[in-house]
Design goal:
Blueprint (H helix, E strand, L loop, with lengths): L2 H19 L5 H14 L5 H27 L7 H5 L3 E6 L7 E5 L2 E6 L8 E9 L2 E10 L5 H20 L1
Parallel strand pairs: 3-5
Antiparallel strand pairs: 1-2, 1-4, 2-3, 4-5
Helix pairs in contact: 1-2, 2-3
C-alpha cells in the first residue's frame, strides 16, 4: 500500500472524529495529515512523513487553539435565577438570621434568608441563591412598602369604586 493512501485514510478518520466531537480535538492533525499526504508524493520515508504529521499537528494546536476557542466560544446566557443576583428588592416579611423571610424582587415574591435580621420594608441586595431561596443583605433602612393587609385593603377599595361607577 502506498503511503499517500495511508495518509488519506488518516485524514478521513480524523475528519469523522472531528465532526462527531465538534470540540476542535483533531482539526490540527487533519491539517497536518494533509501536509503529510502531499509530502508522501515526494518523499518515500514514512518516518519523515510521520514526523511532519506530529510536529505540524502539535504546532498548529499550540498556536491556534486559544484563538479558535475564543472565536467558537458562545456567550453563556444567564438563567432566570442567575439573572436576579445583584438586583435589589424590598423585604415583605421580616427575615431573621438563618430563618426564611420574603422579598419582592423583579416583580415577584421570593423566599429569602440572610445572616442578619432585616425588618419589613428594608431594601436588600440579592447576593446569591441557596436552593430555591434568595440570599440577601441589607443595603438601606426601611422603604415605604405595603404589607399584604394594605394591599388587600387597596384592592378592596378599588373594587368598591369600580362597583359604584358601574351603578351610576
Amino acid at each position: 500500500m502506498e503511503y499517500w493512501a495511508i495518509w488519506l485514510i488518516v485524514i478521513v478518520l480524523l475528519s469523522i472524529i472531528e465532526a462527531m466531537t465538534i470540540n476542535l480535538v483533531t482539526l490540527w492533525f487533519v491539517i497536518s495529515g494533509i501536509f503529510s499526504l502531499i509530502i508522501a508524493f515526494f518523499v518515500d520515508d514514512f518516518m519523515i512523513q510521520f514526523a511532519v504529521f506530529v510536529l505540524l499537528g502539535a504546532l498548529f494546536m499550540v498556536l491556534t487553539k486559544p484563538t479558535l476557542d475564543k472565536m467558537v466560544k458562545q456567550k453563556k446566557e444567564k438563567l432566570n435565577l442567575e439573572r436576579i443576583i445583584g438586583m435589589k428588592g424590598i423585604v415583605t416579611e421580616k427575615i431573621n438570621p438563618n430563618e426564611i423571610g420574603e422579598v419582592k424582587a423583579d416583580g415577584k415574591l421570593w423566599s429569602a434568608i440572610s445572616e442578619e435580621a432585616i425588618e419589613f420594608g428594608c431594601e436588600v441586595e440579592i447576593i446569591g441563591i441557596e436552593g430555591v431561596k434568595l440570599v440577601v443583605k441589607k443595603i438601606k433602612a426601611k422603604v415605604k412598602a405595603k404589607t399584604k393587609e394594605e394591599k388587600k385593603e387597596t384592592a378592596t377599595k378599588k373594587k368598591k369604586n369600580t362597583t359604584k361607577k358601574k351603578e351610576v
